[in-house]
Cell shape-determining protein MreC
Amino acid sequence: MKFVLVSFFVLILGFIKVLEPLRGPVQYLFTPMQLGLSEMALEIRDSAIFYLNINDLRGQNIHLMEEVEDLKSVILELKEIQEENTVLKEQLSIGESSGLGSSTRDKTIQMANVLGNPTDLSETSVILDKGRRQGVSERDNVVVGRFLVGIIEEVFEERSLVKLLTSPDVSIAVMDVDSANKTEGISSGDYGTAVVMKRILPNEEIRVGDYIVTSGKDGKFFPFLGVGRVREISQVEVEPLKSAVLDTFVNVSKVRKVFILNMK
């Protein structure tokens, strides 16, 4: 109440200009302080705006970083789709321009990703990301282009196990397309390192560099799928038959995408 009365009294004095002579000296004394307080208020306001803008920019930066990560993800997906389209186009063009296309005209073909098989220390099998739900069956052929990769040995709901042609468990009826009489034999893997063509009659013609393909006579593989190229030929005198070591056309340990040919 006292402060109200004092304030009222000062107001009356100011109204009747009793304090007019004191206004100049008071203003002179308090002007620097007033300017300082004004500048301080402006600095506080500018600082508050600055920090608010920083916080806003930080939020925008986080949002932009999230958008960049989303764009990177989209780019990776597009690259994967582009790679799949390229591989599929090559596979289809090879099929249409070769005997493989006519032999598989009524068969289904689908692309699959190779997932590897860390449990197989012999490196003679791989797992694919396609299984029973996608229509994969046991004995389906696995190829890249016109070259044989292996055969489906076991099928699960969403996965399938492929035995590679470099496995000793895979035997293939093959023939030499470069020989005049189309020399035939049986090939099997040499524990993941190579493929060996066996049961070649001594008088049968076969040379280093010849191309070996599936004959289809075993009923397990489509005919004319590339198996390998003859690296060397061996014949033991005490044995009646010859054998040949083949270099596979496809480095099966480096393949990432393959095609499954349905045999049914």
About this structure: Residues 96-104 have pLDDT under 50 and may be disordered.
